[in-house]
Amino acid sequence: MNIEICLATNNKGKLREYREILAPMGFLIYSPSDIGIESDPEETAETYRENAYIKALALSKKVPYPVIADDSGLEVNALGGFPGLFSSRFADSCGGYPAAYEELNRRLEGKEDRSAQFRCCICYLENSAAKPLYFEGICPGYLLEKAHGSNGFGYDPIFHSTEANADFGTVDEETKNAFSHRSKAIAKLKIFLAINGSSK
Ligand code: ITT
Q1: Which listed site, 122, 142, 172, 197, has its alpha carbon 20 to 30 Å from 180?
Q2: Which residue owns the Cα nearest ligand 1 atom 7?
Q3: How far is the CA of 56 from the centre of ligand 1 (A)?
Q4: Which residue did the predictor score with more confidence, 24 or 143?
Q5: Is 96 exposed, middle or buried (0-12, 13-18, 19+ CB in 10 A)?
Q6: Ligand 1, pocket residues at CB < 6 Å
Q7: Architecture of domain 3-199
Q8: Domains of the chain: which residue ranges?
Q9: What is the pLDDT of residues 38-63, one digit of tens each?
Q10: Is the pLDDT at 122 greater than 70, yes or no?
Q11: What's the predicted TM-score (pTM) here?
């Protein structure tokens, strides 16, 4: 049986990862553009949860499917968790990811602690009036001094995952999905859906 869910994202890398993980379990994941809808609300909140809810609610009002939204980011510990919530906006402000990698490394100059983690918060909304449910995952690692590989998206090329013992820019999708923050959050969502089902 196919379970239809709409993913409130305009990020093709995220969409690919959700499909890879959930499609084998019978989930049909639509992006807003797949169904001819635009949804890009301003992420004005101060937490991943609230931003995920903003994105989920905006889309949920427009579609007849349960919605999931993903708010995520790279947190560099020696920079107080920066860029965190601002990961996407920071890359834009630098003029793209390669420049953002350099800028992060410039800010880390002279610091011994290069530890970092990716964090993902999923908000699941059965419909726009439903109580939001949250599922979270963390992927620990450290920041590389130079980009290595070009797989994945966003900050993957400068991230070394300690659990995968690999640079995310060099691993295939299956390997990233075995260890990523997103796959951990999705695993929790999958358990919830398996137990509670989905009305659609
Ligand atoms: P949507 O809001 O449309 O989903 P977005 O990319 O703006 O897309 P976020 O606001 O959640 O999404 O920002 C997440 C950013 O964190 C993302 O753009 C990357 O810069 C970074 N990021 C999150 N997960 C990542 C991953 O698995 N690999 C590399 N970078 C990641």
Answers
A1: 197
A2: 88
A3: 15
A4: 143
A5: exposed
A6: 9-11, 14, 43, 55, 70-74, 87-88, 91, 118, 152-156, 180, 182
A7: Alpha-Beta Complex (3.90)
A8: 3-199
A9: 999 999 999 999 999 999 999 999 99
A10: yes
A11: 0.95
